[in-house]
Amino acid sequence: MLRGIVGIGTLMLVQVVFTFLRRNSRVARILQNEPLLLMVRTRVLHDNLRAARVTEGELRARLRAAGVHDTDSIFAVVLKTTGDVSVILGDGHSASEILDDVRDADLLDPTTTST
C-alpha cells in the first residue's frame, strides 16, 4: 500500500514540475509536440519523415486510407500531434489559415514550392 501511495505521489509531483516547466517558452517548445508537414503537393519532405520516424511506405498507406488515387490532387499532408495524418486535397486556398501552426507551413507558399 505504501508503494502505491509513493507511486501516485511521484506521478503528481512530476505533473506539477512539468506544469511549471511549460510556462517557460523555451522549455514549452521542447515539450510541446506540433503538427508537422510531411508532404507538399507531390513533394515528399524526407527530412520531416525522418524526424517523425515515418517511412515512405507508411505515408503511402495513409494516402491510400484517405482515398487518394492521384498525388496531383494533394495540397498537403500533415502529421498531427496525436499521430494521425491529415490529407488536405485541392488547391489549398481555404486551408492556409488552418495550417498556420504546422511546422514548415511556409513551404506551402507557391513561390517557394517546386514540384
Task: Give a quick precis of the structure.
The protein is an alpha+beta fold. It is 39% helix and 16% strand.
Describe the fold and architecture.
The structure is a single chain. The protein is an alpha+beta fold and 115 residues long. 39% of the residues lie in helices and 16% in strands. The chain has helices at residues 2-22, 25-31, 46-52, 56-65, and strands at 36-40, 43-44, 74-79, 85-89. It has a four-stranded antiparallel β-sheet with strand order 2-1-3-4. A hairpin with a 2-residue loop joins strand 1 (36-40) and strand 2 (43-44). The longest helix is centred in the N-terminal third of the chain and has 21 residues, at 2-22.
Features:
115 residues, alpha+beta, elongated, disordered C terminus
Major sheet characteristics: 4 strands, antiparallel
Q: What is the H-and-E element order?
A: HHEEHHEE
Distance between the termini: 62 Å
Number of helices: 4
Seen as an oligomer or otherwise, the chain set is single chain
Count of individual beta strands? 4
The average pLDDT value, as a whole number, equals 84
Main sheet: strand order: 2-1-3-4
What structural category characterises the helix and strand content?
alpha+beta
The helix content, as a percent range, equals 25-40%
Low confidence ranges = 111-115
Rg, rounded, reads 19 Å
Q: Approximately how much beta-strand content do the residues carry? A: 15-25%
